[in-house]
Write a structure and sequence with these properties.
The protein folds into two domains: about 5-125, MutM-like, N-terminal (N-terminal domain of MutM-like DNA repair proteins); about 140-265, Orthogonal Bundle (Helicase, Ruva Protein, domain 3), CATH 1.10.8.50. The protein is about 25% helix and about 20% strand. It is built from six helices and ten strands. The chain binds a DNA duplex through helix 4 and helix 5.
DNA sequence: AAAAGCCCCTGGATGC
DNA sequence: TGCATCCAGGGGCTTT
């Protein structure tokens, strides 16, 4: 489910409510992708200072150390003073003085990992290889073009890899490439400077727009307040195989790239 | 260094 | 209704 917009929407939905809370209890369900990395009782009494985002990770700054939270494919967070009864896919629960934070993740590709600092070995392993934040000032057309020149694989897969620019997942990669008029199979190093600039703008535009719409709720995504997203309703190509392009009417195509679906318009994207 | 495949896991939709 | 197959928002790890 969660690409940058869904993670950011989740962050916005509880960051201000959990800030300053003291951790009172931690309980774990089934194992996730990685172990927590600290004895849960060690977290008791620590405070949650802030919630930041890096790529698709949420970073909970604690009075000592931080928690890295990843939602994987099917994870979602809830934060409320009163939550419904726990179900079998609720794998991490953090009870605090201001409410309970709960991770639900049926597929368990997600994770909650403790790190002593952002430079600790585990934090470096998870965050170290990440590319630039697409919505920050550091994401610049010139640098983006230069980075693409180094890569021979298909632009869609380069976007997904996340080592040049973070946060673009399977939905928004297809959407950004449509917006930029670029064929997903085009080798990244073949993209001209002006076209790279156009893709740069498209990535920013599609992600920012998706955040505004509360993300995409394809099956089960909701933010930490339980609210759904609506960006999927305005998707131009994602999930629209066989349907007419909203711009030119040509039938949208579905192909596989690296075992993942890619959608594009063969007329609008060259 | 980069690229390509594999795999982790559960559940919903579809087909016979 | 039962069972097999395919598919799904991610990404680390291993092998070329």
């Amino acid at each position: 489910m969660p690409e940058l917009p869904e993670v950011e929407v989740t962050r916005l939905s509880f960051a201000h409510r959990i800030a300053g809370a003291t951790i009172e209890a931690v309980s774990l369900g089934q194992s996730l992708r990685w172990p927590l990395g600290i004895r849960p009782e060690k977290l008791l009494g620590r405070r949650v200072l802030a919630v930041r985002r890096r790529g698709k990770y949420l970073l909970l700054d604690l009075s000592e150390g931080l928690l890295l939270i990843h939602l994987g494919m099917s994870g979602s967070l809830s934060f409320a003073s009163q939550l419904p009864e726990r179900t079998k896919h609720d794998h991490v629960e953090l009870r605090t003085s201001l409410g309970t934070l709960r991770l639900n993740d049926p597929r368990r590709f997600g994770a909650v990992v403790y790190a002593q600092s952002e430079t600790s070995p585990i934090a470096r392993k998870l965050l170290g290889g990440l590319g630039v934040e697409p919505l920050s000032e550091d994401f610049r057309p010139e640098n983006f073009h230069a980075a693409l020149q180094q890569r021979k694989s298909a632009i869609k897969q380069v976007l997904l890899a996340g080592d040049i620019v973070v946060g673009v997942g399977n939905i928004y990669a297809s959407e950004a490439l449509f917006l930029a008029g670029i064929r997903p199979t085009l080798a990244a190093h073949r993209i001209s400077r002006p076209r790279a600039a156009r893709l740069h703008a498209a990535v920013r535009e599609v992600l920012a727009r998706a955040v505004e719409k509360g993300g995409s709720t394809l099956r089960d995504f909701s933010n930490a307040q339980g609210e759904n997203g609506y960006f999927q309703l305005e998707a131009m190509v994602y999930g629209r195989a066989g349907l007419p392009c909203k711009v030119c009417g040509t039938t949208i195509r579905l192909i596989k790239q690296g075992q993942r679906s890619t959608f594009y318009c063969p007329a609008c994207q060259k």
